[in-house]
């Protein structure tokens, strides 16, 4: 009961944070200006962007299959795609739930170990983090005149706090390191007693499965194909951001580098722990467009509102269809169940 209350309060806290960020983002934009931009937009470009979003999700499903197959399990691209979209649909309502949902529905549908699947998701996320970091570096150093001052202004308050509290932070880091190594030492000394604790074998099996999933990239013979899929995914994401820029007169003059900038910095808003990235994506997207590219607040607000709504509709619609296909319309037997 306490866990349910804590999770509910945490969800409401992040939801209110998202609402606050929405207010913060749109406080300088009148409703008439926003609605004018939404009415005047050419939605064909949103459709083109959505096509590239779907392609990215399909390729992501194929890349996920490489990791799953490496563990000895059979998969179908269609099933993996539907499971992935169910996860995106879940993320729209509850942050980070989607990672569990997509593993859960695929594990149930194809009889694959949930823990092993979750390990592959962690591996995927770590690899994508590397690509996101590369995108951020390209953005910052590729257009330093634009992005340099923006990054400096963004980091200045944080750096000032680090300088003023430097000694305290060092002391806390040292204490955390000491506690960590003390825990390892105690665990090693008491390992025999720990192995006799009830539930140890279950926890051990979970850790082994997670580790197996995380290390799939390391053991994979198709590393080149995995890298190719990853590059295509992020290219499609960039195109997904670029084509909607053409739907508004104010943003239509921006180039492909602007789309990469929006992708790299805007992704930070999508992964923020608020439902569906609401508020965080709007705040960061408007900041990038207005501060870096001198787009008006009304034009920037129209862009982020339309693109966020389109992605939400896409994820919920395709995710709901995927769930129906997995458990109601598809009659194929699980691939990993003995016939």
Can you put this structure into words, describing what you see?
It is a single chain. The protein is mainly α. The chain has one domain. It contains 15 helices and no strands. The longest helix has 33 residues. It is globular, with a radius of gyration of 23 Å. The two termini are 42 Å apart.
Q: Give the radius of gyration.
A: 23 Å
**Total count of strands:** 0
Give the CA-based shape: globular
Helix proportion: over 70%
Report the span from N to C terminus: 42 Å
Strand content: under 5%
Order of helices and strands: HHHHHHHHHHHHHHH
Give the number of domains: 1
The helix tally amounts to 15
List keywords for this structure.
single chain; 339 residues; mainly alpha; 15 helices; 0% strand
A few lines on this structure:
The chain has 339 residues and is an all-alpha fold. The chain contains 15 helices and no strands. The longest helix is centred in the last third of the chain and has 33 residues, at 297-329.
Topology:
Elements: H1 2-26, H2 31-40, H3 44-70, H4 77-93, H5 97-110, H6 114-142, H7 144-164, H8 166-189, H9 191-195, H10 200-214, H11 216-219, H12 223-242, H13 256-270, H14 280-293, H15 297-329
Helix pairs in contact: 1-14, 2-15, 3-4, 3-12, 4-5, 4-15, 5-6, 6-7, 6-10, 6-13, 12-13, 13-14, 14-15
